[in-house]
Amino acid sequence: MATITFPVPSTTTSRFAVAATNIPDSPATLLRTAEGPYLAHIAGRLGTRQLQIAREDLTSLRWDPGQIEAARPDDRQLARAFNDAEQFAVVTAFAPVTDQPRSAQVARAAAYAIAEATGGIAADLVTGHVLTPSTQERTRFVLADRWLGDVLPPFRANGRCTAADPAVDPEGVNGCACLRLRTRGLRRFGLPELQITDVACPHDLTALNVLRTTARRLLTDHWSWLATGPAVRDRTVPDVLDLTQSDFNDFWGTTRRVPLTPPSPFQVHLSPLTSRLITVGPPDYFEGTINDWLWGDTLPLGLHDSQETPASHPLPTAA
Q: Residue 239 burial by CB count (10 A; 0-12/13-18/19+): exposed, middle or buried?
């Protein structure tokens, strides 16, 4: 079996921003009355490189609020308000890669607390997405909690694609190759981002779920590797992964899912494009195109139709 090697940074960065009508000169003071399970973590890190809070306005920004987008249609109004804002509180966390995911969670909890105190709108500057208002950060890490920047592209290339629907015309299975899906957010955990390309429009959700499942498995293995205290900062992994229903469930953070129908496990092949980007595709033994693979019965049926978790999130518990 072949392998691929990528560098693992010693330090990773998470950045969040809160747009509001009135951000105080010292927005960190808003955290003094913050509540929730991350209060002690915020207090212990505030003012260090692990949690920095700064006020910024349009004259001092080195990032573009107009580039922040809605991850879901319901968030579009929030995104427009964020794009038009003039004052921001920016939360930055520089932390050892071994401090993940706690460092990123503490930083996002601080952003949520500032948003609540100011009536503002929080956004993740790593994924480039506005965050739905929330009062607390869940203590248990769940990748599906807006950490992956995983969104579906406009279906059928915004109406420009004329490929047939494969459910009606079998020729539509490979009728186009419009889509490229890429994660945004794995780098804050010390992993390369993942992408899948040449996907036909009708297979967008399946392709996205393949990325989600692969990301969760790589992240699980990554944290196990970091826990061994490796002396080197290059990591070598197999270029073929065997994925199971547990990996798919772990992405959502729940076991309350309709069981995936056979076959399970299934394989994906990883190909490095750069040191920070890995392509995901069908295993080498698969005879056919990537769209034959996504449309066929090689993948479990659950990957074809699961867009959002059907289970309610458990209430946060004490850290």
A: middle
101 phi-psi bin (left φ>0, alpha ψ -120 to 50, beta other): alpha
Residues 6+ apart with CB under 8 A from 186: 148, 192, 193, 194, 215, 218, 219
Measured on CA atoms in the order 302, 305, 311, 312, is the torsion positive or negative? positive
Question: CA–CA distance from 63 to each of 68, 113, 121, 126, 275 (Å)?
Answer: 10, 22, 16, 11, 24
Residue 268, classified by CB atoms within 10 Å of its CB into exposed (0-12), middle (13-18) or buried (19+), is buried
Helix 245-252 to helix 204-227 angle (10° resolution) is 90
Verify that 124 and 159 share a domain, yes or no. Answer: no
Q: What is the CATH number of the domain that holds 48?
A: 3.30.70
Tokens of 298: 């090689």
Tokens read off for 33: 């009355």
Question: How do 240-243 and 266-274 pair as beta strands?
Answer: antiparallel
Provide the whole-model pTM. 0.91
DSSP state of 50: T
Let me know whether 109 and 185 are in one domain.
no
Q: What is the mean pLDDT of each run of 10 residues along the chain (319 residues)?
A: 93 97 95 87 95 94 95 92 97 96 97 95 97 84 93 75 81 87 96 96 91 96 94 92 87 67 79 96 94 89 69 36
Count structural domains, the chain. Answer: 2
Q: What single DSSP character describes residue 60? A: T
How many CB atoms within 10 Å of residue 98? Answer: 15
Q: How far apart are CA 296 and CA 215, in angstroms?
A: 22
